[in-house]
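Here is one such tokenized protein:
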Amino acid sequence: MKKKVLLFIALAGALSVQAMFHFLPKNEGNSYAYLTFEMTDGTKASVATSSLTLTFSGNMLTAGSESFTLSNLSKMYFSNTDETTGIGEITTVTLDDDTEIFDLQGHKITKEQMRKGVYIIKTKDRTSKIIVK
């Protein structure tokens, strides 16, 4: 039943998206450049609205080149900026005594145990992925 309700909501959203594209004047300040999808885990993905098509297939929504599982979607909205989350700025990481290091299997390791590969670094401010070459 829950899947049917989600599908109905998604279809209703698609119809309103189509209606908004139809009635928004182009280049008059009322149009939006992106349709942003927010997932239940807080991540976001933005899709350009120019020539955007939405397709539903089973429990999947395809918007442009992006595909989403309907049960993972929290909300979608129009935006003038690309709000995609994922890779952020590239920064230098200093490994101090308060830094926690994890391998990709989730095992906590020390600086001395690090070899070539990808690691998760957790500091008091943020969590990052690093590559050791």
User: Anything to note?
Assistant: Helices lie at 2-23. Residues 2-23 form the longest helix (22 residues). Residues 44 and 82 are 9 Å apart (CA to CA).
